[in-house]
Write a structure and sequence with these properties.
Structural class: mainly alpha
Strand content: under 5%
Largest sheet: none
Helix content: 55-70%
Oligomer: single chain
Length: 220
């Protein structure tokens, strides 16, 4: 089975969990403990300019910024703007060609190398700017989907070329959630189903979703 087919199977395993739509709805409940749509809608978010609102929005996803990283982002604002300008603003991951993915990869790698940032925080910052193209990923997502090493974006893009799978993910969209990208719906479904955080466990308990089994270790 090809890697994208395996990822489709793993996505469908998450979607098949009874009550997963309730977990997604709980995550985007404006009165709940999660970031919800604030991550996307907080403050100003111009397409090609990194703002302080962008940095604040990412902290809602349980990360923090070191002073050295913030100074570098401010000092190199022109470099960041040029990098963002090279990435299409209205392109979905599954329709992205090599050039668009390469442009996103270059900026992701630049964010990644900043002090205290790394690939996870870099993905959250870039997903704030390009939510339809760049998936948020952390160890929970990687352990659930288990993509080939260093090929997460291209493997997920190939998996999502199946329109039926995208339709199934769209079925998770909560009322009033028109601003949420499909990638974010998927990320939230995986995270709320498998995260060991207190809030995720409480959400599963409230919705009546049983606790998941242990996840496989991260691939090295």
């Amino acid at each position: 089975m090809q890697p994208e087919e395996l990822v489709r199977v793993r996505i469908r395993d998450v979607l098949a969990v009874p009550g997963v739509d309730g977990l997604v709805a709980a995550y985007f409940n404006p009165d709940g403990p999660f970031a919800g749509t604030l991550f996307d809608l907080l403050g100003e978010n111009p397409s090609n300019v990194l703002t302080l609102d962008d940095l604040l929005a990412t902290t809602l996803l349980d990360i923090s910024w070191r002073p050295l990283a913030v100074r570098a982002l401010l000092a190199e604002s022109g470099h960041v703007t040029a990098g963002l300008a090279a990435i299409p603003t209205s392109l979905d991951l599954w329709n992205a060609g090599p050039d668009a993915l390469q442009s996103a990869t270059v900026l992701h790698q630049w964010f990644d190398q900043l002090p205290g940032v790394g690939p996870v925080i870099a993905s959250k910052l870039l997903a704030r700017k390009r939510p339809r193209l760049v998936p948020i990923h952390d160890d929970v997502v990687f352990r659930v989907l288990a993509p080939p090493q260093s090929k997460f974006w291209v493997t997920l893009a190939a998996a999502l070329t199946e329109s039926a799978l995208r339709h199934e993910i769209e079925g998770l969209r909560p009322a009033g959630g028109d601003s949420i990208s499909l990638l974010r719906l998927l990320d939230v479904a995986i995270w709320t189903r498998h995260s060991r955080s207190r809030n995720a466990r409480n959400a599963r308990r409230a919705v009546g979703v049983p606790e998941p089994g242990p996840l496989p270790p991260l691939k090295s």
